[in-house]
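Tokens as discussed.
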């Protein structure tokens, strides 16, 4: 087992790793930018090293600085968390070359799943259902139009190196394809340095359901049930829950088996997620594989009673997994609490938290790095907290979440708490009749204004 782990991340996920490492008797090293000097992950780690100025490009994304921090503190492993360098094949490889274990996927696995077009081909070859579409990257506008006309509209154009909704366009007709060929490619090139595009059939009334997986160094893989992440804004998740209200035992079995096929196809090592789109008739299609721990891993932990960070560390140390597939017990919901103003197009709201009070009681979990007096820097992602409720039924978990949100006080900055309060009251959400288009159809601003 590792003696010391450096966490190449910040905020709540860094603190989350520190807690598990401490329970395992492993020393920890926090790295931080100048803007994060007062963050709790810096305070609670055994050691802390400043790795650069405020901007992430000069600190949390600066590979030489992170490797240097690991070497001077004698860390024998690096946990990348999520975001930043967690799915960076170059970073994983550099860790290998420097004799430091990267607690995550191998470089070739990250590369194989990071390129969406090649990932789709790998999954198709492995027998995992994939969305009908182009066979690899599109070579010309004429080819794009030909494929779209053969599949039938609507179709969706996607950047092969895309993420967060960039380089993505839904096309209802030929004119839409022509426009997307120009605009989406320019956007992708600017964002990712790669204008490669592919096309898929657009799924009507889609749900975003993902399967948590684990694979070890001995060829074993298993799944740890599903999460429903359909409540999204511009392809960014806002609320996650498990089990999915749309799930059946038969569908879970099929999706779980498909996810294990996906893991074994790339000889996956670590904890990861296979993401699917599920249509109204419960047909499911591979979307992508995330080769890292995810923001919403918390709710899976609550319904299977298992520490996924601990599992990551054990796998990286060469220990075998049980190989058991897990069924959820009870229901868990997570609301991402962001420092954003929902009434102003979710504009980020950095600044000093003047008052802070967490909700409590049975079945409440909060993962956060903020406190009264903490100043939220403007340089990073605006998520400041994850509020999780756990209960025996979905209805009880929603009611508990509504109560907890009402107790959660964060003053001095705008947050998404009022938005979540109204979401928990929405009849469609309470009935579980949610698709990824839900927020486009709901006037949440009107609901929030009315509640004032």
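Sequence:
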């Amino acid at each position: 087992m590792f003696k010391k782990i450096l966490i190449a991340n910040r905020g709540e996920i860094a603190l989350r790793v520190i807690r598990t490492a401490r329970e395992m008797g492993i020393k920890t090293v926090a790295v931080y930018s100048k803007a994060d000097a007062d963050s709790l992950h810096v305070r609670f780690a055994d050691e802390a090293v400043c790795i650069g100025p405020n901007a992430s490009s000069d600190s949390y994304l600066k590979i030489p600085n992170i490797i240097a921090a690991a070497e001077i503190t004698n860390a024998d492993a690096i946990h990348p968390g999520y975001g930043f360098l967690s799915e960076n094949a170059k970073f994983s490889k550099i860790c290998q070359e420097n004799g430091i274990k990267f607690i995550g996927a191998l470089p070739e696995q990250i590369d194989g799943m990071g390129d969406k077009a090649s990932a789709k081909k790998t999954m198709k070859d492995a027998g995992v259902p994939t969305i009908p579409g182009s066979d690899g990257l599109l070579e010309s506008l004429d080819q794009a139009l030909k494929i779209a006309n053969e599949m039938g509209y609507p179709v969706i154009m996607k950047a092969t190196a895309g993420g967060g909704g960039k380089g993505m366009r839904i096309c209802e007709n030929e004119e839409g394809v022509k426009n997307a060929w120009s605009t989406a490619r320019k956007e992708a090139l600017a964002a990712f340095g790669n204008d490669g595009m592919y096309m898929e059939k657009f799924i009507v009334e889609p749900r975003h359901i993902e399967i948590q997986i684990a694979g070890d160094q001995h060829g074993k893989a298993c799944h740890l049930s599903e999460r429903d992440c359909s409540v999204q804004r511009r392809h960014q998740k806002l609320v996650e829950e498990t089990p999915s209200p749309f799930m059946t035992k038969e569908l879970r079995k099929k999706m779980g088996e498909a996810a294990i096929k996906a893991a074994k196809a790339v000889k996956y090592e670590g904890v990861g997620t296979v993401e699917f789109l599920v249509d109204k008739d419960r047909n499911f299609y591979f979307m992508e594989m995330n080769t890292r721990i995810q923001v919403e891993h918390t709710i899976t932990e609550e319904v299977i009673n298992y520490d996924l960070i601990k599992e990551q560390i054990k796998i990286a140390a060469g220990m075998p997994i049980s190989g058991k597939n897990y069924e959820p017990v009870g229901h868990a919901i997570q609301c991402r609490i962001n420092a954003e103003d929902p009434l102003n197009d979710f504009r980020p709201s950095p600044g000093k938290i003047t008052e802070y009070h967490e909700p409590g009681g049975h079945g409440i979990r909060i993962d956060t790095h903020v406190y009264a007096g903490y100043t939220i820097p403007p340089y990073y992602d605006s998520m400041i907290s994850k509020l999780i409720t756990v209960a025996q039924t979905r209805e009880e978990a929603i009611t508990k979440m509504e109560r907890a949100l009402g107790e959660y006080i964060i003053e001095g900055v705008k947050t998404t708490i009022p938005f979540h309060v109204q979401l928990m009251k929405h009849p469609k959400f309470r009935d579980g009749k949610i698709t990824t288009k839900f927020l486009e159809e709901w006037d949440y601003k009107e609901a929030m204004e009315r509640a004032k």
